[in-house]
UniProtKB/TrEMBL annotation:
This is Popeye domain cAMP effector 1. GO terms for biological process: cell adhesion; heart development; regulation of membrane potential; skeletal muscle tissue development; striated muscle cell differentiation. GO terms for cellular component: bicellular tight junction; lateral plasma membrane; sarcolemma. Keywords: Cell adhesion, Cell junction, Cell membrane, Developmental protein, Glycoprotein, Membrane, Tight junction, Transmembrane, Transmembrane helix. It is found in: Cell junction, Tight junction; Lateral cell membrane; Membrane. InterPro entries: cNMP-bd_dom_sf, POPDC1-3, POPDC1-3_dom, RmlC-like_jellyroll. Its main location: other.
Length: 316
């Protein structure tokens, strides 16, 4: 047998490596400085500690810088179209993320009438401006009352409609003509009713709340506010704290009706279950008995607080 010999000799010389082969016969010279600066920029962005407040913004900034350097290197020194196109795409994506992060950190302008309420009540509890704006911008209105007008009338006004914070002015709370306490600015107007009727709807105010001065107040729709708080656990806990604290302050006002506005603002006690129950028991007791004067005298002497303390000692 005679071996077959190809008629045409192979045109591939020995030792030739195809362009797409993976073996490297000879290493190229190092790339231009722009290439190394681009990789250095990517490295700096990836090693940034996540504890930095501007971590994501700085990361996107370094990635954009690296892509820009790669584009310069591919255009001026490499003349490689695919490297250029991919880095342009990466640059655009990172720029959109960078712009969105800056937009999220933009300063939030709170309405001038609400700035004091935010600084006094919500800012100390670490409520962000954006969250406060959501809370007051969707289902909240600012309303006014002239001197002598009633916010609520006992046995007539429903407690299910709203929850309000007094922004400006002063209100007087009374029961059957007997003065109970005042409500000053940056305080909830109907916090006891809001807390005591969370489980029982359809009740009426047991007191009359009257404007002693021209008043302006922030008013939420109770139904929509409750629905919104159910979707935000943090804000729900903030409201529970603020309402409880306001009830505590009103209880101290009941025990000392001559308490001044400055003294009320200085009270910074956490709400206790005892104080909240005392306020609710006071309202219920007033509505269920005809001996109004004795109850009012007991409240003014601090009887509700003493009774609560006695109950605590008895339980312990």
């Amino acid at each position: 047998m005679v071996p077959m010999v190809p008629i045409f000799p192979s045109s591939t010389p020995a030792g030739y490596v195809e362009p797409n082969a993976t073996s490297c016969q000879q290493w190229e010279q190092p790339h231009h400085l722009f290439f190394h600066l681009g990789n250095l920029s990517l490295l700096l962005g990836l090693v940034l500690p996540t504890t930095l407040g501007l971590h994501m913004i700085l990361l996107r900034l370094f990635l954009m810088t690296g892509c820009s350097l790669f584009i310069t290197w591919a255009t001026l020194y490499r003349c490689n179209l695919d490297v250029l196109v991919w880095n342009v795409i990466f640059l655009l994506v990172n720029f959109m993320h960078f712009f969105f992060l800056l937009y999220k950190r933009r300063p939030i302008k709170i309405d001038r009438e609400l700035q004091l309420v935010y600084k006094r009540l919500f800012k100390p509890l670490h409520v962000k401006e954006a969250l406060f704006q959501r809370l007051t911008g969707q289902f909240c209105t600012i309303q006014t009352l002239k001197k002598g007008q009633a916010y609520a009338v006992e046995d007539k006004t429903s407690v299910d409609e709203r929850l309000s914070i007094l922004l400006k002015g002063k209100m007087k709370v009374s029961y059957r003509g007997h003065f109970l306490h005042n409500i000053y600015s940056n305080s909830f107007i109907d916090s006891p009713e809001f807390r005591s009727t969370e489980m029982h709807r359809g009740e009426k105010f047991q007191v009359t709340i009257m404007a002693e001065e021209n008043c302006k107040f922030l008013c939420w729709s109770r139904e929509r506010l409750t629905y919104f708080l159910e979707s935000d656990t943090f804000l729900n806990e903030v409201f529970r704290y603020l309402v409880g604290k306001d009830i505590t302050n009103k209880l101290y006002s009941l025990n000392d009706p001559k308490l001044s506005d400055k003294a009320v603002k200085k009270m910074d006690r956490q709400p206790s279950l005892c104080s909240q129950l005392s306020m609710m028991q006071m309202r219920n007791s007033m509505a269920s008995t005809s001996d109004t004067d004795d109850i009012l005298n007991q409240i003014l002497r601090g009887g509700s607080t003493g009774k609560c303390n006695d109950n605590i000692e008895g339980d312990s």
